[in-house]
Specification:
By secondary structure, the chain is α/β, with parallel strands linked by helices. It has 15 helices and nine strands. It has two domains: 31-250, Orthogonal Bundle (Helix Hairpins), CATH 1.10.287.70; 262-404, NAD(P)-binding Rossmann-like Domain (Rossmann fold, 3-Layer(aba) Sandwich), CATH 3.40.50.720. The radius of gyration is 30 Å and the shape is elongated.
Length: 409
């Protein structure tokens, strides 16, 4: 009986890939795809806004929230940026919980704005909050791929939230600077009227700014009003158009259940050439790419799946358990090895083919027991050296060195 030897990777990328594979398997068992990282980040973003409100308003924060929006009248103008940022962050966290790409962009901008405000206006008065925001910014950037949805609900939420925050800024800003307008803005209803007329760029001219501060404030209202209106329309119309096109494409082309097909993993020249040759021979082929390819215009969109083939979810989506063979042809030998292990975990009928780019990894690759190990780059270097040395080259030698497989099977 043959005893399988344990796998010991001596090259650093392999160790990192094993940790990544372990993390993916743990995430699958914890159903992390349904809540991580979007829900923790949504809570973190909401917490950043609440912390800003807490640090800014101190003991008065309970009265501020309890009497909102009337207590805002007692907020000094210098604290208005903190108030708006503190309220905007929890609003955007709702969109993050739904994996909204637009909410992620807005949360990213707001986090940068919070860092700039704390740095430029307060310097190091809030070092703990500043460090929290810096860590939050890094986490948002690292998790950018998790926020890929453009839903109508999230876009509508953004439009409503941004419009409400802008309206608060406009009304109370006009009220605070009321004495600097002609005639004077002395009540909230007049401030609301002036804000709506200005943001809509109608401009009746019955109320005009008299000072530099009032004029700059009016300019900001016009700019923000146009920007929020245009962005909100784009955020709402975009998902509607995208959803309509998606439904049309779905009706036109239903997903086929693949069976007895070949799966090629990787965006290397070997992977693309193998795909083309199999397609030329009328075989059904599925190509798994780490990211969408724009330069390869001869790829059939129905054959391409974008994702990480180390993930069992991606392999199941490609019906790897019903495939004839899965060909791991990525540029990293350790990634090819873990793809083979992931395919074997599905316990399907597919044979496994692993490409090797470095001759040092041939024996290590055999430890994961793929059905075929292919080493075209290794063979090319060896054949060139043999030809230059005048050594004899025969077909059996080429096949033995090109396809490293266990002849006992």
């Amino acid at each position: 009986m043959t005893v399988r030897q344990p796998i010991h990777w001596s090259f650093a990328p392999g160790r990192l890939q094993r940790l990544r594979l372990f993390g993916r398997r743990l995430a699958d068992r914890l159903a992390a795809a349904y809540w991580f990282p979007h829900l923790p980040l949504a809570l973190a973003v909401a917490g950043a806004g609440l912390l800003l409100l807490s640090h800014t308003f101190g003991a008065g924060r309970q009265a501020l929230l309890a009497d909102f929006p009337f207590h805002v009248l007692n907020v000094p103008p210098a604290s208005m940026p903190y108030l708006l940022l503190g309220l905007a962050m929890p609003a955007m966290s709702i969109g993050l919980a739904f994996r909204s790409r637009f909410a992620w962009v807005v949360a990213l901008v707001l986090t940068v704005a919070m860092i700039l405000v704390l740095t430029l206006l307060r310097l190091v008065a809030y070092p703990l909050l500043l460090n929290y925001d810096a860590a939050l910014l890094a986490a948002l950037l690292l998790a950018r791929r998790a926020f890929d949805r453009t839903s109508l609900a999230a876009a509508t939420l953004f439009a409503v939230a941004s419009s409400l925050l802008l309206l608060i800024y406009a009304v109370f800003g006009s009220f605070y600077l009321g004495a600097e307008f002609s005639p004077r803005i002395g009540d909230l209803s007049t401030a609301l009227y002036y804000s709506m007329v200005t943001m809509s760029t109608v401009g009746y001219g019955d109320i005009t700014p008299r000072t530099v501060h009032a004029r700059l404030f009016t300019v900001s209202l016009i700019l923000f009003g146009v920007a929020v209106f245009a962005t909100s329309i784009t955020a709402i119309i975009g998902p509607m158009v995208s959803g309509s096109l998606q439904r049309i494409m779905t009706q036109k082309r239903t997903r086929m259940k693949r069976s007895d097909h070949y799966i090629i993993v990787g965006a290397t020249a070997l992977a693309f050439n193998t795909y083309r040759e199999l397609k030329r021979r009328k075989h059904q082929v599925t190509l798994i790419l780490p990211q969408a390819q724009t330069e390869a215009d001869d790829l059939d969109a129905e054959d391409v799946i974008v994702g990480d083939a180390n993930s069992l979810e991606i392999l199941r989506r490609a019906d790897a358990d019903r495939a004839q063979a899965v060909l791991a042809m990525r540029a990293d030998d350790s990634e090819n090895a873990f793809i083979v292990l992931a395919v074997k975990e599905l316990k399907g009928k597919a044979k496994t083919v692993a490409a090797i780019n470095d001759s040092k990894h041939v024996e290590r690759m055999k430890l994961v027991q793929p059905d075929i190990v292919i080493a075209p780059q290794v063979l090319g270097g060896e054949l060139l050296a043999m030809a230059l040395s005048g050594e004899a080259i025969d077909g059996d030698f080429v096949m033995d060195r090109f396809l490293h497989f266990d002849r006992r099977n």
